[in-house]
Amino acid sequence: MALAAVLIALPIGATSAVAQLRGHGGPVRALAISADGQSAISGSFDSTVIRWSLTRNTAEQVLRFHSDAVNAVALLGEGRTATAGADGRIALWTLGKAEPDAVLEGHTAPIVALAVSPDGATLASASWDHTVRLWPLAGGAPRVLDEHTQNVNGVAFTADGRALVSVSYDLSVRIWPLSGAQTPTVVPMPTPLNAVAAGADGEIAVGGADGKVYFLTAGGVRTGEVAAGSRPVISIAISPDGAHVAAAGIGGAVGVIDRKARTLARTLVGPGLPVWSVVFSRDSRTLLTGGADNIIRRWNAATGEPVDPLLVETAGDPLAAYAGDRGAEVFRACVACHTLGADQANRAGPTLAGIFGRRIATAPGYNFSEALKRLDIVWTPETVSKLFEVGPQAYTPGTKMPEQRIGSEQDRAALVQFLERATKR
After folding, report:
1. Domain at 320-422, CATH class
2. Name one GO molecular function term (predicted).
């Protein structure tokens, strides 16, 4: 369906039955809510940004600038926002305008997270080029923090504005002082890290690839951990009242953690597809999630129930015919972006129909990056397994595919065997 048709389908005065936010043509990778709670900004794999009215349940503006997935958004105040994506660029916008006011360039790989300093003067960006950059919003060259040795996946300023926290695949949290000493405090962690949030009381929460949320003091001392689920945590948020942490996972659920009790208070269960982004409303009562099914959902943060009736409705399960197949369950994290059958179209990613024996970046009708077209890879059971063993960024540099690895050799074998059956033309 064309985007224009989607927007027409969400008129002013829409009832709660259509109050979930539909409009993106790909997974919703990033969310932010305005200070007054009246509007939200979302970024998507479809390379667009949408400004939403949360009172009228309508898309008010579509921003088009990035040439690849929009992985991060941040509200800067005074009607301004920042967006960043897999194209390595940051765009600064005045909402209502069709073109960005400024473009910040310097990263050499996808940008996956943004954070704004408490005083609104500095924008931090985290990138898979292993760096964090601190951009003065008044202009000038960024400060580059380059001590991470793997992809940097998250950044957050401490509430007092004195430090920046970054997390990475390199199994570390780094706490960077923003004045005085320049050497960060390095906290070794037991798992790769995907997300970070900092509370008003100074506590730091980080989300791990092992499905746990780890808690640290402002000085970097670990104080506890809570299992949010069995799959990697890919987005986290601390409620403004400080009571809860929401941890969104690649398995499709969101764990809501009681910070004081250090327990899992409730789990929000959607359609079973990855939840890429999560944010609390300013009153801490509502939770917004952005999923791999392209929809923004609203939840009652206190009860765990969906706010909008249609949020509990899901389309037919494309993997229903493979119930009980371990490989199909492993593939479930991919189903939002890839179809399997010859009669099915490309989605955010190319169809996998007939993949085995096909050279990379040659599936018809899909716009592949030039970097992929230059790779000398033919898809076989061995190369598909290798892709998930080392990760897309290492094996297929230049890909739009979200970074994900399958550590279990048995799960990789099950996935390959499933694809061999399911993708035959």
Report:
1. mainly alpha
2. electron transfer activity
